Amino acid sequence: DQSSDQRRRFNLKEYLGEILDSLLPSLKRTGHVIELVCPDDIVVDNFPGALSQIISNLVMNSLQHGFEGIANGRIKIALVVVDHDIVMNYSDSGRGMNEVQARRVFEPFFTTRRGQGGSGLGMHVVYNLVTQTMHGRIECRSAPDRGAAFQIVFPVELAQDSSASPAAIR
User: Fold this and answer.
1) DSSP states of the chain
2) What is the pLDDT of residue 162?
3) Do residues 140 and 150 touch, judged by C-beta distance below 8 A?
4) Do residues 15 and 101 lie in contact, with contact meaning Cβ atoms separated by under 8 Å?
5) Per residue in 81-134, pLDDT tens?
6) Which of 55, 67, 76, 88 is 20 to 30 A (C-alpha) from 15?
């Protein structure tokens, strides 16, 4: 699904479980854990491929940046329905970011790992997927040594004229 830009209906908890299962090899030989809190019965009509890429990028950022030097990190992904929206709160217990980093985290090419393999595009891609493909919004809250938290809000069901994924994201 990550490479697909097809809109479809899917059970949110089951699909998130599949995404997290696909990330288990990255967690092997670490003390890091991921907790998923989501009602069993939420069915979403949106772009599952975009959601897969968003979750994968957030988890990999936590593993590569947030948990650097931390043996037992914790990621929590909690979802609820509010009115006609999914509210997803993603948080990690990592190193966190200072105010400037948190404010710039979605800018293209912004990275705290310049020269160490970081391109600075991961969170920019997440921002575009949330806002353009899934017709939602995202914000970041973080502080040094207090982890990072992202709140993502997107519609349970996209409007009928939202049937195609924007080409600008590819």
Assistant:
1) -TT----EEEEHHHHHHHHHHHHHHHHTTS--EEEEE--TT-EEEE-HHHHHHHHHHHHHHIIIIITTT-SS-EEEEEEEEETTEEEEEEEE-S----HHHHHHTTSTT--S-TTTT--S-HHHHHHHIIIIIS--EEEEEE-TTS-EEEEEEEESB--TT--S--GGG-
2) 62
3) yes
4) no
5) 999 999 999 999 999 999 999 999 999 877 765 555 566 678 999 999 999 999
6) 67
